[in-house]
Design brief:
This protein has 192 residues and is mainly alpha-helical. It is built from eight helices and two strands; from the N terminus they run αββααααααα. The chain has a two-stranded antiparallel ribbon with strand order 1-2. Strand 1 (38-42) and strand 2 form a beta hairpin. Helix 1 (11-33) packs across helix 7 (128-151) and helix 2 packs across helix 5 (102-109). The radius of gyration is 18 Å and the shape is globular. The mean pLDDT is 83.
Length: 192
Amino acid sequence: MSTGRIISIGPVAERQLERVSIHESGHACVAEHFGLESDCFVAGRADGVCVHKLGSPFQNAAVSWSGALAGALLADVPLSREALPAWFNQMMTAEGRRELSRSDLEGILSYPIQSACEAAFNILSERIDALSFSAALLVRESREQVFQSITRGGSGEADRLDVEMHIHQVRQAAIEARQRANTEKLVAELDT
């Protein structure tokens, strides 16, 4: 992305970009805490993704919770440790689940235990400054992509395709890295 020019996307789109970036940065922060390499991408004003290596069901659920928790922790009135159980219960209702993306909901429901939510909360609350910095960096890196989305009409379908292409590229890069590592290991074994 070009960092040499200023992109103006307007105040509403900027707030949406910040919200998506905070959400995806929350996923990345918790994934990295667990040693699950991650990569974030924001395609449009409402679309982003954080691809990470899979961990245990508990870790995957904590990563899934962390997107919504990041927004709650960086809100004007941040979610407190005391309010977390009520927030968790609200999010587990049908109404609360509608606030979650399909992929986040799948991760949460694969391990629907409050301890995964609490772990994500603890990780994020200990890293608020890093979370804020990561989100701001993602906003800066993503502004041009969002500008392009707006100029082509802000199509949710086009943004979804951008996200799917990014996921494919990340997965392909991971496959190629594994193949290189396996080849290097085989060469090393043949040399001995």
